[in-house]
Amino acid sequence: MIKLSTKGRYGTRLMLNLARHYKNDQQAVILKSVAEDEAISIRYLEQIVIPLKINHLVKSIRGAGGGYMLARKPSEIRVCDILQALEGSCSLVECVEDETFCDKIKTCGTYEIWKAATELLKNYFDRITLQDILEISDKKLAAAKKKSKAK
Amino acid sequence: MIKLSTKGRYGTRLMLNLARHYKNDQQAVILKSVAEDEAISIRYLEQIVIPLKINHLVKSIRGAGGGYMLARKPSEIRVCDILQALEGSCSLVECVEDETFCDKIKTCGTYEIWKAATELLKNYFDRITLQDILEISDKKLAAAKKKSKAK
DNA sequence: AATATTTCAACATAATTTTATAGGTTTTAT
DNA sequence: ATAAAACCTATAAAATTATGTTGAAATATT
User: Fold this and answer.
1) Could you tell me which residues come within 8 angstroms of residue B149 by beta carbon, excluding any fewer than 6 positions away?
2) CA separation (Å) from A69 to A24, A62, B138?
3) Which protein residues have any CB–strand D distance under 7 A?
4) Among the partner residues B3, B94, B137, nearest to A93 by beta-carbon distance
5) Domain that holds residue B65
6) What is the rounded average pLDDT for all residues in chain A?
7) Cβ–Cβ of A128/B106 closer than 8 Å?
8) Other Cβ atoms within 10 Å of A43 Cβ, number
């Protein structure tokens, strides 16, 4: 499949959830709360948050009163950063990132197609930040609210 | 991962291989030959070719002298058709194609992002045909040949 | 016409990766 | 001390990837 992995999807939702709690004097958000909000197993989120931390996209505070928070402003975290952290890359095929992955690159007829498609995706995910998603999301929710009020 | 599955990659290469043998009075190409050309296990190709046949992208002839051939002209087979046959869709996330996949679509902040990215991909794969890949591939091989001749 | 060969077709199984759950340990605030 | 939370390791379940084995159909050969 060309499907985004659950890591990528859940991880982005986790990051968006943290972004919603982002303020100048950030408070840590516990994974349990994210797990409930997003209906994702807390155990699985624990695994997903590890690479996000390693790649300095989130910070953690241990112990009671601890939790996780964004390492920087939502406007400074791109979707591409998240996917890169969780999946090692934003690319559709391994060979585009790692020339040694397949020794037929030089003659492969499909290589340029996957490469071009990867560029399309990468360009898109490169310019969308958590801030952008927050705004899109807020508009969407406001519109849905208005609609439900109307009837 | 956002990775294309092996089915999608191998299947496209299989189709491109058949396209290379396409003439008006087509001769069937045996899977063994494709397997050798592409360095993919015959057994696996046999599994991959089934959905391609079901979706009328290839035709098969049984018995000695048999094999597989494109069901129509390379210019009339789009990458999207191939991916659709092999993976059920061209989309990055299930929920874009199947509204019942997740019940949080109405409030999901990331939905629009995956949807927009899927549109980008789909538009691209929708307008690339096997004929296009053949031409890109031929140019590439010609250039590589010229280069090796030069030194 | 009978036989052998070639090829697709179908089914079963193994290996690997992804997805998910479970249990325990360490750190910190109260 | 206790409870809350991140952190760590192991394992189970499911899906993907890949191989193996046998069968069926069409063709070529004798």
Assistant:
1) none
2) 11, 12, 51
3) A 1, 28-32, 43, 46-47, 49-50, 53, 60-68; B 5-7, 10, 41, 43-44, 46-47, 61-66
4) B3
5) 6-90+129-136
6) 94
7) no
8) 9
The structure tokens listed for B97 are 């194609």
Residue written as tokens 């972004």?
A19
- Count Cα neighbours of A88 within 13 Å in the Cβ-side half-sphere: 9
What average pLDDT does chain B have?
A: 93
Amino acid at B59: K
Domain count, chain A: 1
Model-level pTM? 0.93
Q: Is residue A50 part of a domain?
A: yes
Q: What is the ipTM of this complex?
A: 0.92
Q: What is the CATH number of the domain that holds A90?
A: 1.10.10.10
- Phi/psi at A70 (5° precision): -65, 145
Q: Which of A119, A111, A85 is nearest to A12 (CA)?
A: A85
| pLDDT, tens digit, 9 for 90 and up, residues B109-148 | 999 999 999 999 999 999 999 999 999 999 998 988 887 7
Per-residue b or e along B45-70, where b marks 16 or more CB atoms closer than 10 Å to that residue's CB? beebbebbeeeebbbeeeeeeebbbb
Please count the CA atoms within 13 angstroms of the CA of A45 that sit on its side-chain side.
23
Per-residue pLDDT tens digits for B39-48: 999 999 999 9
Residue A151 has pLDDT above 80, yes or no: no
